[in-house]
């Protein structure tokens, strides 16, 4: 008989941070005071925090040692050169501009490449990415495959671009109106779904034909590479590091939120291959972020990032990271809870439309569900639905996205399998009692990225 052997996390725990459970009565009060928005809860009132995987990863002993090696010189910090070297080595881009986080890099590249009246096709939008494109005068165009908008489709590469849609938009608007195509690895808003290398190569061919750049939103590129290794034909024998490099080499520039894949609490960068774009970005960064050798990051943070990049592309690390997410997802699926298929790489996404079919989308089902899960168990999740989708730029009406999701995002190297079990039990409990759940109405709405600060009341 063939022997089966379980795999475990490729680390042991050296330091712990206590978490505390509150009472249901307390949590009802906390969420009411937070306007039923999990972003407005205090972290001390949260038991297990699945709000985001952004900046919430556990750093390794090597990274903490790196923190002590911070060279906080205003210019030319040693740590910047380590970070630059890691980016060139593991991602293959030529020039590096550090930024305080991903949106800092998005701001720079949008201001440099986008002119008023331009169109920016992408494999689904991301909140800050699209906003920076719009603030620069561009209009985002969704060219992801239709399967990405269907939570039931179990197509493996839902991050793929629909090449016909892309070519149609190029022909319709003219290649000179399209500064670049934005390719995200993985696609956060679709549920952490990967793009295949086969599809990316096709996108490269098409964009070459029309002389259009590809800007890579590479926040979770290692997770995307892992899915390619597992599920795309011909990549079983390649390492995650090799696949990461292959993805990056098919693109012209990248924006990175190092707070995700790269295992640090803060930081990001813009990486480009075009020396002219580099010169412009290096000039602009001093206006908005900081000098071109720190860009809003401390020296110590750049050192931790340099080490984090290397750790993030190790096969055993990424298998445990994605494996934990899959474990939680499988558990929920077995319990009959409606989730987005296939299970993504950085979180499990609950399908709030199916979870709460008695609520219409303007009763904010995903917002409601996130609040209910918090009240049940102190587990903090977040909305990815109508609130996140914002309003139409011209009509001012709500955007009604097809996907109305609650995201259970798993921080890297932070929680154990027992935490996953507690989370699954809570979601299952809320699911079994879903009929009694009432919706919300919005009582305060900020102008930009409303999901962060909007407030609600119970209907
Ligand atoms: C987080 C994220 C960003 C923005 O990065 P920040 O570091 O939060 O500014 C951009 N794109 C994607 C896909 C992200 O997940």
Model description:
Helices cover 39% and strands 13% of the residues. The protein has 459 residues and is an alpha/beta fold. It has two domains: 24-46 and 315-458, Aspartate Aminotransferase, domain 1, CATH 3.90.1150.10; 61-312, Type I PLP-dependent aspartate aminotransferase-like (Major domain) (Aspartate Aminotransferase, domain 2, 3-Layer(aba) Sandwich), CATH 3.40.640.10. The strands form five sheets. It has a five-stranded mixed sheet with strand order 2-8-7-6-5, with helices on both faces. Strands 9-12-11 form a three-stranded antiparallel sheet. Helix 5 (127-135) links the parallel strand 3 and strand 4. The mean pLDDT is 96. The structure holds pyridoxal-5'-phosphate. Pyridoxal-5'-phosphate (PLP) is lined by residues 54, 101-103, 126, 128-129, 184, 188, 217, 219, 257, 259-260, 268.
Radius of gyration: 21 Å
The average pLDDT is 96
Total helix count? 16
For the record, the CATH class of the largest domain is Alpha Beta
E-strand count:
14
The amount of helix comes to 25-40%
Largest sheet: 5 strands, mixed
**Alpha-beta content class:** alpha/beta
Distance between the termini: 58 Å
Low-pLDDT stretches are: none
Task: Give the SSE string.
Answer: HEHHEHEHEHEHEHHEEHHHEHHEEHEHEE
Strand order within the widest beta sheet: 2-8-7-6-5
Please identify which CATH superfamily of the largest domain we are dealing with: Type I PLP-dependent aspartate aminotransferase-like (Major domain)
Which outline best applies?
globular
In this entry the ligands are: pyridoxal-5'-phosphate
Percentage beta strand: 5-15%
* CATH overall fold name of the largest domain: Aspartate Aminotransferase, domain 2
Quickly give the CATH architecture of the largest domain.
3-Layer(aba) Sandwich
The number of domains is 2
